[in-house]
Specification:
With 293 residues, this protein is α+β, with helices and mostly antiparallel strands. It contains nine helices and eight strands.
Amino acid sequence: MNSPYSLITNTRKPMEYFITVATNVIIASLILMAGWMLGNYVYKIIQNVKKLDDTLKSFLGAMAKYAILTLAGVMILQQFGVQIASLLAILAAAGLAIGLALQGTLSNVSAGVMLLILRPFDVGDFISCGGTTGTVKSLGLFVTELSTSENVYIFVPNSKLWNTDIKNFSRNDTRRQDIIFGISYNDDINKAFKTIEKAVSKDERIFTEEEQAPKIMVTNLGDSSVDITLRIWSDRGDVASIKVDTMKAVKEALDKDGISIPFPTRTIEMVPAANEAEKAAPKVKAAPKKKAA
């Protein structure tokens, strides 16, 4: 196809030039309309994917739509005879420079996309990652917002979350926890077992099924106490309340049955210094020497 710019110099064929330009404009309009309709169609398809997060739907849908519109723009420029090779090279160099300048931001975006796709946690989950613990309030493309149990706001970049281990305390419906009690070496261990078992059996929130029944065991012989571990299962929402209630109930039951929880003790042996030991030692008088006859 002849370029419209070369036809400008051909003054003897104005009608041919007009027809060529009109044809290119019509084709360009059709390409633009087709790109716009296809972009909106793809955007709606992505919005209807139920497995994707709403934030990710908007992000991927917008990317797909503008990618199609960009391709349509390139086709329109080619239709008018514009050489886009040099233009694409300039845009590629500019994109590389911008990418290097926004490397940290782009890493947060890529991490946000992966978090939204894999969904290691949802809004409302209680998580711990990289020494940060809290309830997820929002998950975006750039950052994740948390709130601690003390109602402290935490702003975490997504790249930090993606590069660390994430503990999700809300993912499983049931949770196990170990509560440790220390008794004196002089107390009867079997009696302590029965006391703890009786105290725990009164709480209906604690599971009693065979595989998740409470278990009581000696797990450590400490410096001043015999450590007894109580292992229980419950719904995830009852973990915190069960812990505080169980510790109170077991402490009261142990006190009632005369089982003590000892304090840490330490024996100190006082050793006198060497010069003080010599002074304290009794002096022995030497026997008098006998005179020679």
